[in-house]
């Protein structure tokens, strides 16, 4: 590009800037993803200008032709500061300043930057939402296979009560559903148009803000010109949602890491998502889940950095806002790739059903069921049966017995006499049946519970909800594609 292009901004007023300062001040690296949007904004602005009789038809056609000829992958010159000036400079380079110099009439980089960010971000959040739907679908398919796969449920990372693997993974499904909802809910707040606000005080030209908003596929206009150029709360909201997504991906990853250890041996990850040691050849490390867990923190950092960066900025536009872009892109890229990685990892992992069942059978995990059984079959209050079962567990441990089903009738009667000064007249065989882990799970038929029938019903309901979500996302993606196609017809 000719050095004269640098004069688009600085002229004699400021003179040529040294390269090291230009590089330091430039947003070129983070603006690369904006080029397509910037070209489209200029097209829509040009169409609006001619329709409002601000430029003539001949000028409009020459500008549109030059814009259509631009390569979105063009090399960007840091001496021109950003994508906006690079696009304008390329247009002027092709058709001259007398024609190309008119494209910036009635607009500023301030409103254009915020508009471009919103155009790219609205596409990004739909991509993340679409991939989250794919992850949810994978989890639901996984749950279908493991409706009857017994496993310990945990609180404080200690055995709590028996559940099924399907029930456990449905908890992740529910959390991820909420994040898809958040992304879709954020879409209309992202999809508002700042164009026409210009630098901060609109313009004296008789433009149509409504027309450019329509051409770019926005839902509505931002209705205060200062807010239109200065607001970045949409960016903070999206980064916050990305952080929530990564939070849950990190939790799932932590379980995959933990459960694939020798101590748990609940599952085995596909080889491609693991690594080995440079010195210990037997190692199979859960490297990809570990990285997802770590990368979650970097997305949290993107959010906190962005919040800190703009917490005390005066209105309206400040160049500090330029620095936000790279954190938004980083948050997107990490979240998008992490969702994909985790989906593929779960699709290929295998489960050790026997080990999970063994952890339920050889434990005291149905102690609550025993307390509940005694409440149902006697006149005792739960707090009394809770103390009774606690004493039973203690006695079994002192005798070296490691599971609740080691309880016999004589020991039961002895503990009852010691605890409540009375023997209980109950069918001991029914008691033993009640503390079988699988029977415990089957008996929990309350809505949201782990019984196989309840879980199957929950899976069916989630599949229906998922289809509705996917249709909504597909509809929004199709709408944005139609906007692009329509804009491309103007020449």
Would you write up a description of this structure?
This protein is mainly alpha-helical. The chain has three domains: 3-105, Fumarase/aspartase (N-terminal domain) (Fumarase C, Chain B, domain 1, Orthogonal Bundle); 110-199 and 219-352 and 455-474, Fumarase/aspartase (Central domain) (Fumarase C, Chain A, domain 2, Up-down Bundle); 367-435, Ribonucleotide Reductase Protein R1, domain 1, CATH 1.10.40. The protein has 21 helices and six strands. The protein has helices at 11-14, 19-25, 28-31, 35-51, 57-68, 83-95, 97-100, 109-145, 165-190, 209-215, 225-230, 233-259, 287-310, 324-348, 353-361, 367-377, 382-398, 409-420, 428-434, 437-443, 452-488, and strands at residues 150-155, 158-164, 192-193, 220-221, 267-268, 350-351. The protein is elongated. The relative contact order is 0.11.
Please give a handful of descriptors for the protein shown.
Fumarase C, Chain A, domain 2, disordered N terminus, Ribonucleotide Reductase Protein R1, domain 1, two-stranded parallel ribbon, Fumarase C, Chain B, domain 1, single chain, mainly alpha, 491 residues, two-stranded antiparallel ribbon
SSE blueprint and pairings:
Blueprint lengths: L10 H4 L4 H7 L2 H4 L3 H17 L5 H12 L14 H13 L1 H4 L8 H37 L4 E6 L2 E7 H26 L1 E2 L15 H7 L4 E2 L3 H6 L2 H27 L7 E2 L18 H24 L13 H25 L1 E2 L1 H9 L5 H11 L4 H17 L10 H12 L7 H7 L2 H7 L8 H37 L3
Parallel strand pairs: 3-4
Antiparallel strand pairs: 1-2, 5-6
